[in-house]
Amino acid sequence: MQAIPYARIPLALVLALGLGVLTGKAHAVDAADPNAFADLTDPAHDYWNRPLKDRFTQLKDDLENGKLPLDFSSEKAYVVSLLKALDIPVTSQMLVFSTTSLQLRMISPRNPRALYFNEDLFLGWVPGGKIEIVSIDPEIGGIFYIFDINLNGRPPVAERSKRCMNCHSDDDTRQVPGIVIRSVVPGPSGGSLDSFRREDTGHQIPFADRFGGWHLTGGETIEKHWGNVIGRLFQGDITTTPQPPGQSFNWETYPVQSSDILPQLLHEHQAGFVNRVLEAGYRARFYLREGGGRLSNRVHIDNLKKQADMLVKYLLFTDEAEFPKAGIAGDAAYASDFAAKRKPDGKGRSLRDFNMKDRIFEYRCSYMIYSDLFQALPEVFKNHVYRRLGEALDPQGGVADLSSHLSNAEKLAIREILRDTLADLPEGW
Hints:
There is one protein chain. The protein is globular. It has a domain at 6-38 and 263-421. The chain is built from twelve helices and ten strands. It has helices at 11-19, 28-32, 55-64, 75-85, 165-168, 261-290, 298-315, 332-339, 372-375, 379-392, 400-403, 408-421; strands spanning 94-96, 113-117, 121-125, 131-137, 141-147, 159-160, 183-186, 192-196, 229-234, 237-242. Helix 6 (261-290) runs antiparallel to helix 7 (298-315). The protein has 429 residues and is α+β, with helices and mostly antiparallel strands. The protein starts with 10 loop residues before the first helix and ends in an 8-residue tail after the last helix.
């Protein structure tokens, strides 16, 4: 009997073979409560009680027992040493001066909050305030911690914060514990006068709607954005005035003197990725539990098919925001730190290779496909995502709404990179 390439097997057959026969039954829970899949207390997730696998939790005991090499000579030195211990590049620094944080009373144009990140850890620091951590558990998403900086040498005690969930598990994050990025017009003290792009994150957000309340360096070629301004409200109208980085605060307070466009772009991309993958994973686990370990419900299967196509579109940067005609330079130091984790194929190409002329990456498939978060998706769903990705990257066919923006040469290059660098692609991919 001739073997059927996995990429050609219909989803219905894949699911039937892996998890049971389809029945086509309706499902009352979906109709009555479309957000039931994201109930954190549901046994499928058990968010508050299950053993955690995120990277910060794995390091938490060493932090609290004084085993991490931290520098207590100053706040800045402490932050730099903590970032190094967590393998977060200091060059990823971004500064936000709107009061969109748990520590809002301490944030202002005179005292911006600094943010740093890698693929699975996000660290926030307000000078004179606390350290905030969002650590991504591969299955249940953001785990939130907050702790003091003790310059007396006493190790910190990292408290798992429930208050963060007020903003990090709602419509802004697709109902799952994810990453929030807000763009607002901040008043003179940092309070929000207006906001943009609510309930959405990702590389598709137009630059004209980004960076409100944030400092932005290196973005000179972008004609219109909301960064580096403060607003004033008078008789119902908002007027803005420039708020250049370093005008109201001292750069020496912070580890590096930048809030560069390049980490801003990747932070936005990763936030959109994290929130979308978490939503898909939450749905898949919830549907499997509802079906007793099987996907036997037509509504659930249709929902997961939509989720898979959504992820493939995002992985392939299908709707990436239009770049300025002059391109974007980006900070060379951060570009070097980012490239340190590249996974080259046999021809030396990688998904971390920048373009920055008319798009972020030379080969438009997200490097986050290697992340523990993506790899932890339920197997039958992840394999379907791979199947749809393979179809989208087929130079002989493709899927128009998923990959029409890619040339055949780029599709072929991406396929070759993935084949050389991913170990779990389905047979026949």
